[in-house]
TrEMBL record:
Name the record gives this protein: UPF0342 protein NCTC12278_01209
UniProt record similarity statement: Belongs to the UPF0342 family.
Pfam families: Com_YlbF
Upper lineage: Bacteria, Bacillati, Bacillota, Bacilli, Lactobacillales
InterPro entries in the cross-refs: Com_YlbF, YheA/YmcA-like_dom_sf
Amino acid sequence: MTVNVYDLANNLERGICDLPEYKAVAESKQKVDADQTASALLKEFIDFQSKLQGLMQAGQAPTEKDQEEMQSFGKRIEENPVLKSYFDAQQALSVYMADIERIVFKPLQDLI
């Protein structure tokens, strides 16, 4: 019996989208998008994360100032109930995603 892995992958996609945790992230994201303050802070945070990733990819460690700025973002996000809810929902979904990633990539790990 031949299994069509593309069908399995498409079923997995639909299953993920049906998860209550996925729906909670989508709903939280809509609330972030509707809140000007939360939306601006999220964009600022994502831009800062991108900057840090670029530094690390270039082999540079974040400076003390960067670390302080990251802590400041953490505090500001915790203080914003809309963003806190969004990140909490993302965290709940990430548990599923980590499990799925482990399962999906296990056959490849077995080959190493």
